[in-house]
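Quick start: load a record and inspect it. Here is DNA mismatch repair protein MutL:
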Amino acid sequence: MPDLIQLLPDSVANQIAAGEVVQRPASVVKELVENALDARATDIRVLVKDAGRTLIQVIDNGIGMSETDARIAFDRHATSKIKSADDLFAIRTMGFRGEALASIAAIAHVELRTRSTDSDLGTQIVISGSKVESQKPIACDKGSNFIIRDLFYNVPARRRFLKSNATELRYIISEMHRVALANPEIAFILVHNDQPLLNLKSENHRQRIEAIAGKQSNKQHIPVNIETSVVYIHGFIGTPQGARKTVGNQYFFVNKRYMRHSYLHKAVMDAYSNLIPSDAYPSYYLYLDIAPEMIDVNIHPTKTEIKFEDEQLIWKILNSAIRESLGKHSIVPSIDFDTEGQIDIPVTFNPTEVKPPQISFNPDYNPFRKESNYNRPQSTLIPEWQELYKGFEKGGEITLPDDDEEEEILVLPSKGNEADIQTSIVNFEHDRPVEDATFFQIKNKYILTPVRSGLMVIDQRRAHERVLFERFINTIRSGNSATQQLLFPEILHPDTDDAVLMRDIMEDLGTFGFDIKETEPGIFAVSGIPDGFDNSRTVSFLDQLLEAYKSGEKDASLEMREQLAAIMARNACMMAGERLSAEEMTMLVAQLFQCNTPAYTSSGKRVFTIVENEEIEKWFR
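Running the structure step on this input writes:
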């Protein structure tokens, strides 16, 4: 029987390793930038074109490499960071397995220009598909300059799996954020298609967080600092007011290495219990300094997961550190049992007669009367209990009179007038509100109205979402978007990741009536909004829109503008708990049943339900 087992060629083995190390252009950026950090660089520049498909160039001012080191660096498992097996338990560098350069060279055209600090001439090496094409001396700056062209040129299947340029660019920016946040003392520059996206100078942790997350983040974070014999934890956590509905800006760094750790994430969330909603997530930037022998960083191919020797102990320390910071900054109410001084109890040496306290009251007090009438004689008071029943004959909302609370009314935009609304109600079919229908609101959430078959219960927020969705869809199809110009433009300062996404959807937002321009790199001015849109919610709406895109609500297989209309409707509809007047309820219901699909929202959720007459009769048998 012939031998069946054989060694794989180096080119094939390198491509298999590349499948683990190089998943997308962002993986190349991560590996090369981490190598620059290990080379003690203080200035790192990253230049990409077409989101890394065409070009990735990483330039650093580190110690560089000699001619021999430059050549052997592209061999598998060639590394300067591991000498023996014991070194695996004392790793403080970023890369150490020696697979990055070999994997990159296996699936791209690679050029390296490098010069060490003690050499007058550098070395240039050109490699394609793991094959060295040339190596020669060259005059170049100190440090290393990696040029990666045509990524996955010899693996077309992998290239087809790459997503859009905007998506791949966001992955690259995310990797740069992680490295930059872990190393604030290093200067970073990121340029895409000759457009600068990041320009970070050497600074401290707070300044670096502000430069990446935006200037407004400085007021939304509080410091954390605790040092124990096991671990030193420092960094910043977000205030409960800054918590978002989607995951974002949650960072753990262990010995300057970014990591994901669901168990420690639960420690953070536990510290925020009863402070934020269960579906909200606070931001945090937490740095853990721990002895290398107490962790294992070699449990994941991309080294984004770390195993601790005693995870429960780290959990408790982290949880208590966050609780302490929240308490110190008056976020968590606390009781102080320590009092300064003693309470002096006066002693009466000349006892006097003790009299019971006198209580005065108004026998004519009526809680249903206005305050201005309390002091009037009873004979002049008008019975005001009848005010409670006002609105029954008009179909209005039943409310107790309250002079101190102003009623908040959401004005629903409408092209029609009251006569058109009444006509539309008259023309409703069976199981729709009857003629001259009366509408009642319960808990500022549901609208009740009688129909021929029973009682209709409408979710007012979902109804408004359905109305807005069809209005946005009609705007797309007609191409006639009405824009309301703002007297004072709203200025947006999104972080780098959100700025890329904003550029990607600005043109589509213009279809709906938004007038948004990028006045400076990373700064956007909103000069116009759709007609009838609430100006006070413009900034929060756009923030929620970007979060919806990042959280995966957008499906590439569907028409983009229709998805944008659905996301806009979900985020632009009325807030939960809006109190509506009788006219607003009538208008909203009329607009709902003018929609093509009034029963469901764009995401398939039920808008209304009907309690049958037979079911109601059963209640009273």
